[in-house]
Amino acid sequence: MPRKTRRKKSARGRIRRGEQVTPQRLMELSFAYAPPLIISAAVSNRVFDSLEDGAKTAEQVAEKTGASARALRILMNALIGLGLLKKDRQGKYSLTPESAAFLLRKNPGTHAGFFGTIAPNLISRWLQLSDIVRQGRPTVAVNQETEGTEFFSQLVENIIPLSYPPAQKLADHLKVAKTKNDIRVLDLAAGSGIWGIALAQKSPRVRVAAVDWAGMIPTTKRITQKFGVGDRFNYVEGDILETFRALKSSGTIAIAEWLVNDDRTKPLPSLMFAVQMLVNTEKGDTFSFNEIKSWLEEAGFKKVRKVEAPGPSPLILATKP
Questions:
Q1: What 3-state DSSP class applies to 122?
Q2: I need a surface site. Which of 11, 147, 155, 311 has the fewest CB within 10 A?
Q3: Which residue in 195, 239, 245 sits closest to 214, CA to CA?
Q4: Taking a C-beta distance cutoff of 8 angstroms, is the pair 318, 302 a contact?
């Protein structure tokens, strides 16, 4: 009888025994730092904004932005490779639907702020990863109020496009728009306040208590007022760790987290976000649904469940009996 071909797993998936292993994938990974920095440079030099009103050559973009034509040509060709620009036969560059939707500064759902200011800051912290692994703690822990206030004050507004869609999904799931009763929302570690904002936009009956560090509250106030719902927010300087007792009976807790599977082997974005927690916090990590479920049940919550939502992971909801 013919022998069955044995297989073994690799990082690429499954390969046959004896198949030649090459460094191709490692070579690709060696430049994985480049795309966010390329996008950051393009945002900072207003490349995408300069193309909003039509296609342009590198020289024309240089005239509009004040940047080097040679450098822009190299940068924009790389953006073509990333699928964020296109070029016609006359050498004129133009936006793609993706960059037009998410990388123009004026758009409400723009990611330009994240790439322009936050991504380089985050990447610079990752350069200390070898020392952090050796020592088991970050150089600067942003989960501490003094250091964290400055970090999150810069971060929270720029990640609104990541949080707003799942926050709207939560509001729809809870049928906020249809309720005839007053709704009280406790927004813990409120940051930009976008989760409470999304609920408040659905119904005038929503009132939000936004809890965060004292230094974060001015940011929360400014953004909630920008969205036109600041008059329905109460801003509380306080500790976010006391939750169960703050909820009334039948109240719902909603958690937005990057979830991993029980074995911590996938998905890759959540595993990498765990390293982000290692780089920036003293005890942060990513967790599985079952881990969070057990903590909620130990605290007294019931009916722990997942709700699919836009973003890296589903929402986790539980009810206080």
A1: helix
A2: 11
A3: 239
A4: yes
